[in-house]
Amino acid sequence: MKILILASFLVVLVLFIFATQVPVDITPDKVSGAVSEAISQAEVPVDEEVVEQAVISSIEILEKAQRTRLKYLAAAYIVIWLVFMLYVLRLGQQQQQLDKRLAQLEHTSEGEDN
Fold first, then answer.
1. Is residue 51 a contact partner of residue 37, using CB atoms and an 8 Å limit?
2. Rounded Cα distance, 34 and 104, in Å
3. Is the dihedral of CA 57, 59, 60, 62 positive or negative?
4. 58-68 burial string, b = 16+ CB within 10 Å, else e?
């Protein structure tokens, strides 16, 4: 039972590590292409470098916020898992105590029958 709990903890820990990594599909080439396309459709003159820098900084801010949210989510799952496993361990201890008590009662009742 304890080995199963340890193995499940390791799985949750590995999932936590992978969950906090934000996959980023936005490359500088994609940003440049999107900025160029937006500027070509704009009706007012715009400095392309300023817009591109603003987009890149916005993406960095959003990625940082996403990493923070993922860390909180993964931490909540770990806490829930930990509480559940402690509950399961406590139930196992109580079951062992009940089994011992039942064995004592059976032994006592057999002694009284003789």
1. no
2. 77
3. positive
4. eeeeeeeeeee
Q: How far out from the chain centre does Cα 26 lie?
A: 23
- 81 with 9: CB under 8 angstroms? yes
pTM of the model: 0.56
∠ CA 38-39-45 to the nearest 5 degrees? 150
What pLDDT, in 10s, does the model give residues 4-59?
A: 777 877 887 777 777 666 666 777 787 788 778 877 887 778 788 888 888 888 88
Q: Who's near 66: CB < 8 A, 6+ residues apart?
A: 22
Q: Which residues contact 74 (CB under 8 A, 6 or more apart)?
A: 15, 16, 19, 20
Contacts of 48 (CB under 8 A, 6+ apart): 35, 36, 39
Instruction: Write the CB contacts of 75 (distance below 8 Å, at least 6 apart in sequence).
Output: 16
CA 16/CA 23 separation, integer angstroms:
14
